[in-house]
Amino acid sequence: MQPGFLANGRKGKRKPRTRIVDVQQPEESGPPPSAIVASTPSSSSMPTTSLVVLPAAPVFMRPPRLAGDHKGIFAKMAADPNFRLRFFTPPDNSFVFAYWPDIKHRLLARPDAFTPLSSPARLPFEIRAVPGKGMGMVAKEAIAPGALIVRERPLLVMPATVPVVYEATLNGMSYMPEDVRSTYLTLANCLPKLSQMSGILNTNGTLLDDMPGQLDDYCGVFRNIARVNHSCRPNARPRWDADLFAGELRAQRAIAAGEEITFSYTSTFLPSAERQDILSHKYHFTCKCILCSLPPALLAANDQVRTYLGDTVLPSVMFGPLAQRGMKEFLDLERMLEMGADDSPTLWRPLARELTRRYCAEGKRAMAVKWARKAMEMTLVATGTDGGWAAVVEAPEKTDAWRSPGGGT
Ligand SMILES: [Zn+2]
């Protein structure tokens, strides 16, 4: 899930960077590796040996192009009179889903898409006023890295082109159930020149980046996630779960009780001037977060590291075999990440996986556990499941990489 979706956003400032998402490998959606047991004859006289398979490295791929192409929608509508925006409200009237007919058979047919969500007995946050920022989300208790903060259905899901093309449709949205509408209308609107409905959508909408649409991207507005303010060094990260038709927010580093919960509305690999430019153009505020408040020399150093990570390290980690890198390269990367350049799973996840493999190969249990825990936390943030890492944290010595230099690659 990516914040921001305006189809006619900032133009001509700089060549667009590749938008990257983590994509789970098919193996990770199967049974956890702890359940994968090396086949041994089932004999009461023979001990059974469990072998934990080190979870595979994350696979990165470029997502489909951002649609925002009104021509494609118009051409489809001209060619097919039945191709019109449709609206769906589930039986419990909990949200409105506006969609193009091209996704109905693939999405609405999912049996679990609209069944009730399980929610934690006690929410670890409160929504309250935050000085200088309006409303925000604040932790009521300490939240561990990887932990679920909230999982919720959207109030509204719309094709991303709708706010631009169908302002009138949006204004007259009689489809919205009354209590959903009253919650929706309390959300922030930083674009008062648009209608209230459209301004709120453009201010709070997050891009739902794995909806199976052919012609358009989709955006959603969420009751609680919409209250989360921006930081350039965020402590949380949202993601969209298309199977559950829900957004979730997880801690990507430890959050203390009383700390504001934030996520980044921009790429965290951009230098500060570009981040401020995007925030000012799209959301009409100037960021004063812990990074943007650094003295100029420190901010310049942080910018340099972030740009290096985004422009050089990220493509190399995504497309190069990590196993061939020298250990010094990894430790340099760890130092750069820990100095505040990035807390997201994008780089930490492959780095932690490879370091776990190496420490397992050397038989260094404490270090293997440390990095397996980091890999587990980052996998939870990126995918919503531990991906089999809990079993590695528990018993790294049972992995196929243990004291095996070539294992787990
Ligand atoms: Zn900032």
From TrEMBL:
Name of the protein in question? SET domain-containing protein
Q: Which organism is it from?
A: Auriscalpium vulgare
User: From what superkingdom does this record's organism come?
Assistant: Eukaryota
